[in-house]
């Protein structure tokens, strides 16, 4: 006869040993630690394009934030921004907000990348905490100007590199850095998203300004806009930065007169003769976005809200595999990376994996508010934001020129 | 929503590139509704509301508020025949599993279950229009907006098209919710076939609800109440209304309780809702 009590106890003991083996704690799980902010930060969001509106929407739903102003020079976008932030007042620019003498306590910059610098400097000059989207800027001198200003402003600065506040990525990083895949062999990453990158304008006079991403004079293209987030994953997971990048690009689908490539490939050189192979396209969406770390004992693949470990046959047992769910990719078995694995196993919820219970952007904005209200470390410092932006600028230059671009190691020096 | 949306946009050939870009914007709007109000995404607003609505009100933006206003109004006017608080009952009846879906529902503690045995746990959902928020009065509520979110997505899509001055389009979600903007080229309206009946739509929405459409053995529409019994699989309803959310919600209500059609006919007319079938 079965004894449910004993079975339960055995399951519990297995769970307890696995916690020890992995060093996991509930804090690494996907449930967010309860945070009841004592204050409400009055935030202005500059830029009401599609991403800016997502930011407004998330902030509107966050405890501890009140969106008091949204700004965009394009009236239709401003109107759309106000729908997402009904407590806000609309303005054409940060300067207008400033002139209105509105009581603002923090600023989120979500304008086109080439317009970040002036706005960030203006906000920092007013001693306002800043959350700036990535890439921080599109020229090395602008990136350096932002970095210098943020380091002397004495107010929190966060770069919007989202993975750094994503609990799943944080969990998997601990896992990778504790040697789960042993020594790095190389890296792969891609961003595939079938889209036009065309932004239609309600008022056709706004069309050129709204389509800044398609203008090679203004935009870093796919390598910069998509790549910056993924280069940062490599930096964060490995602690390594590239010394050179070679690239190329082409137009594979959108032959509508644009000059900006719709497909790019990059080879990035990392210490120890390791390479990052990167490609991005808006002509195909297969496998969307991922970062892949190859190691001598296995590989880890991260795909925003999911992650997997693929073990080599000679890799040692770690422990959590007993409980983990599995997904198959052709003939590879991927072990689902889930924090709180043992707790979830006890609840019989682990086999299908568990996704993030909040969108990645919400984690990032909450972390920013924590830095503003409680002095917590920003999830992505201006230093790391600047490093990723410099790499993105070099990558865009490599794609544009087709040449190998060396990256100054001084950009990554500590201090 | 987990369904297919299609758009037919009408414009001159030279506008094709612009229309493609507008279509992308529209699909982004639809995806946004999915990511906010899907019962099957753990990171959706709906999953958050179902997890924490008894502790903390969920702040709504202007579009969210419009969605909940329609839900609240149709719930009231249909005498509860339309009720979004059916997620637990739907899950318990196996309707999600039958479609290969796993609903993101919070587990209910044994204590809470003991207080109110059966699928209907204590509490209700409350819309506070002044503070633009929605909350739960107890542990029990768990909303499923599947009977209205498709329509809501289509309404936002049509608004987006109108802002870009697109004046002729036909949109549908899962073929059961349709919106016509303007008319088909050379016609006075768009013509849609519903079970062999031709329905002409112009700046109107049509929703069709069929209690037997998603399950071979049991109706997928539940009649709200203490026991949440399945509606007769023979029940179908087709409704034309000024907005797709309104059409969706009334189609579900009328499918759950066909007798409502007569009882609420004056009310339906007042809301410009027309029952076709």
Descriptive notes:
The complex is a heterodimer of chains A (about 425) and B (about 280). Helix content of chain A is about 35%, strand content about 20%. Chain A has about 425 residues and is an alpha/beta fold. Chain A has a domain at about 165-350 and about 385-410: Dihydrodipicolinate Reductase, domain 2 (2-Layer Sandwich), CATH 3.30.360. In chain A, the strands form 2 sheets. Chain A has a 10-stranded mixed β-sheet. Chain B is α+β, with helices and mostly antiparallel strands and about 280 residues long. Chain B is about 35% helix and about 20% strand. Chain B contains 10 helices and 13 strands. Chain B has a 6-stranded antiparallel β-sheet. In chain B, strands 2-4-3 form a 3-stranded antiparallel β-sheet. In chain B, strands 7-8 form a two-stranded antiparallel ribbon. In chain B, a hairpin with a 5-residue loop joins strand 10 (about 220-225) and strand 11 (about 230). In chain B, helix 3 packs parallel to helix 8 and helix 7 runs antiparallel to helix 8 (about 245-255). Chain B is globular, with a radius of gyration of 19 Å. The mean pLDDT of chain B is about 85. The interface between A and B is medium-sized, with 27 and 29 residues.
């Amino acid at each position: 006869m079965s004894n449910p009590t004993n079975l339960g106890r055995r399951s519990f003991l297995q769970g307890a040993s696995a916690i020890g083996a992995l060093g996991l704690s509930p804090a690494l799980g996907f449930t967010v630690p309860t945070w009841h902010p004592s204050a409400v930060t009055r935030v202005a969001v500059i830029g009401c394009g599609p991403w800016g509106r997502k930011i407004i929407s998330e902030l509107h739903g966050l405890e501890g934030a009140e969106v008091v102003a949204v700004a965009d020079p394009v009236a239709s976008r401003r109107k759309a921004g106000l729908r997402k932030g009904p407590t806000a007042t609309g303005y054409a620019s940060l300067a207008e907000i400033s002139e209105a003498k509105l009581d603002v306590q923090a600023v989120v910059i979500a304008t086109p990348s080439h317009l970040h610098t002036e706005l960030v400097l203006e906000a920092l000059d007013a001693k306002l905490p800043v959350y700036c989207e990535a890439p921080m800027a599109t020229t090395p001198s602008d990136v350096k100007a932002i970095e210098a200003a943020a380091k002397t402003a004495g107010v929190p600065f966060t770069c919007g590199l989202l993975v750094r506040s994503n609990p799943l990525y944080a969990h998997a990083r601990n896992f990778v850095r504790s040697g789960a895949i042993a020594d790095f062999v190389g890296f792969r990453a891609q961003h595939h998203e079938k889209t036009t990158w065309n932004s239609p304008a309600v008022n056709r006079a706004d069309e050129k300004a709204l389509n800044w991403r398609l203008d090679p004079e203004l935009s870093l293209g796919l390598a910069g806009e998509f790549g910056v987030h993924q280069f940062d994953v490599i930096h964060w997971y490995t602690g390594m930065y590239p010394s050179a990048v070679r690239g190329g690009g082409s137009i594979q689908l959108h032959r509508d007169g644009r000059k900006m490539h719709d497909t790019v490939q990059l080879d990035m050189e990392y210490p120890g003769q390791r390479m990052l192979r990167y490609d991005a396209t808006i002509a195909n969406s297969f496998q969307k976005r991922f970062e892949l770390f190859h190691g001598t004992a296995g590989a880890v693949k991260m795909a925003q809200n999911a992650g997997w470990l693929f073990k080599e046959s000679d890799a040692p047992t770690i422990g959590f595999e007993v409980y983990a769910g599995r997904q198959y990719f052709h003939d590879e078995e991927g072990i689902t990376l889930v924090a709180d694995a043992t707790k979830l196993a006890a609840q019989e919820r682990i086999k299908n994996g568990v996704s993030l219970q909040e969108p990645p952007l919400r984690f990032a904005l909450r972390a920013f508010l924590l830095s503003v209200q409680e002095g917590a470390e920003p999830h992505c410092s201006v230093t790391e934001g600047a490093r990723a932006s410099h790499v993105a600028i070099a990558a865009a230059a490599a794609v544009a020129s087709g040449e190998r671009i060396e990256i100054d190691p001084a950009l990554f020096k500590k201090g | 929503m987990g369904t297919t949306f299609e758009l037919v946009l009408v414009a001159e050939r030279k506008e094709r590139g612009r229309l493609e870009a507008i279509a992308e914007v529209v699909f982004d709007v639809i995806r946004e509704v999915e990511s906010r109000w899907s019962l099957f995404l753990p990171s959706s607003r709906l999953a958050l509301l179902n997890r924490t609505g008894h502790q903390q009100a969920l702040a709504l933006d202007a579009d969210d508020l419009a969605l909940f206003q329609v839900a609240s109004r149709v719930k009231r006017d249909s005498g509860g025949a339309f009720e979004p608080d059916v997620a637990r009952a739907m899950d318990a009846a196996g309707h999600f599993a039958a479609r290969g879906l796993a609903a993101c529902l919070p587990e209910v503690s044994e204590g809470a279950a003991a207080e109110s045995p059966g699928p209907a746990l204590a509490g209700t959902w409350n819309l506070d229009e002044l503070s633009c928020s929605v909350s739960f009065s107890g542990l029990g509520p768990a909303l499923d907006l599947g009977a209205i979110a498709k329509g809501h997505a289509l309404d936002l899509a049509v608004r987006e098209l109108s802002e870009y001055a697109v004046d002729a389009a036909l949109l549908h979600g899962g073929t059961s919710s349709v919106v016509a903007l303007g008319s088909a080229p050379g016609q006075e309206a768009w013509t849609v076939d519903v079970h062999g009946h031709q329905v002409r739509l112009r700046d109107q929405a049509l929703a069709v609800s069929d209690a037997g459409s998603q399950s071979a053995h049991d109706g997928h529409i539940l009649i709200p109440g203490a026991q949440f019994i399945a509606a007769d699989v023979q029940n179908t309803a087709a409704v034309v209304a000024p907005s797709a959310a309104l059409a969706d919600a009334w189609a579900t209500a009328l499918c759950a309780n066909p007798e409502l059609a007569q009882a609420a006919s004056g009310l339906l007319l007042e809301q410009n809702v027309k029952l076709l079938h």
